[in-house]
Amino acid sequence: MFEIVLGIITLSVVINLTSVIQIEKYQLNKNEKLISNYPKNESSSTILVVYFSRSGNTELMALEIAKIKNAHVLRIDADEYKIGFLGWLNAMKDARDHIASISPSTIDLSSYRTIYIGSPIWLYSPAPPIWEFVRNNDFTSKDVILFNSLNSKFEQRFIEDFAKLVSERKGNFLKHIFIIRGRMTWQMETEDFLKEVKTKLEK
Question: Structural domain boundaries of the chain?
Fold first, then answer.
């Protein structure tokens, strides 16, 4: 009897995980088509949008912010968190570690006054790559705004810890912008999501 129950539980976990990964792949493919339509800002700017994204939701948010603010964009890559089973497993395992292998790790921020930094929320905390980025860079006299896309919720203590890290790197943490898209099986439409980005920036 125990073996049967264990088998049912294992099968349920496998089915749910497979569904999550398939939904993430679908989101990424859908978002990539929209992402490709965003023009690159070639003009000068004192605003930079830095972001890490797995399935493209945060990337869309970042590019919309950059478009509205006429900002430059910097994407953070972290190969161990790519879409797929291993990437998902690593994301869950590392969600609270705040340490990651990223590229680029360090850049010259001297020409920017305001820096938006964004990521998805994993286990109620901003994803590790942006913690690593802040830890590795000099934010002296920079105004920093954290932005996140998420499925359900975050814990304020992690936002406060992130703000503290920014301060330790001599930056001025201004505020936290976030958008809850909803659970994977039912999420806010992309058009509404982008409208919400604009609304959040106006507040």
Answer: 2-202
